[in-house]
Amino acid sequence: MTHESNVAGRDKVNYDRWGIAPSLAFGLGTPTRVNLDYYHLESDDLPDSGIPYTIPVTGSAARAHQVQSRQSRMTAATATTSTA
Length: 84
Description:
The radius of gyration is 23 Å and the shape is rod-shaped. The chain is mostly beta strands. It is built from no helices and 7 strands. Strands 1, 2, 3, 4 and 7 form a 5-stranded antiparallel β-sheet that branches.
């Protein structure tokens, strides 16, 4: 699964994600069952913080407001067993 959410009129702003979540079961219809599950999600976002601005410090020096890209990764795996 992938997801892209860009903002119209803003070239630098983006919200991109992709992930996968497969499941596998063994022993269906038997007294003992084993389930294997996996989940993985990656995100690469550059949020919209509004209008960029600069703040003069002294003389010609200025400090610019900068927005940082956010990247995250989440992974989980489980194995469960059940008996009737």
